[in-house]
Design brief:
The protein is mainly α. The chain has helices spanning about 5-15, 20-45, 45-75, 80-100. The protein contains 4 helices and no strands. The protein is elongated, with a radius of gyration of 19 Å.
Length: about 100
């Protein structure tokens, strides 16, 4: 395989990783962190550990909110209008299907 062909394949693989994909991944990771800290908090019996986990939970919640606000501001996420969100998701699905079909 030529170097040029390898570079072309790499560019095609990376191209879909845009701001929306990155922000969505961050949002999902933050949401997962909130769940994990909440579960851990309910499982601990040590006051000192509980205090630390509570602080981490608060930070995870704040991080999730900042990412969600960024996505809302940049019209990547429409949590208050289901029709807009569905339309947005359908466009992204169509784009993903076209990428797969072109390969």
């Amino acid at each position: 395989m030529t170097t040029t062909k390898t570079k072309e394949m790499l560019v095609k693989a990376i191209a879909p990783m845009d701001d929306l994909a990155i922000a969505t991944d961050l949002l999902l990771s933050a949401k997962s962190a909130v769940r994990t800290y909440a579960i851990a908090l309910t499982e601990t019996a040590t006051p000192k550990v509980r205090k630390i986990l509570k602080a981490q939970l608060d930070t995870a919640i704040e991080t999730h909110q900042k990412i969600a606000d960024y996505m809302i501001k940049n019209e990547m996420y429409h949590p208050y209008n289901i029709e807009e969100q569905v339309e947005h998701d359908m466009k992204k699905s169509d784009t993903a299907l076209k990428l797969v079909e072109s390969n």
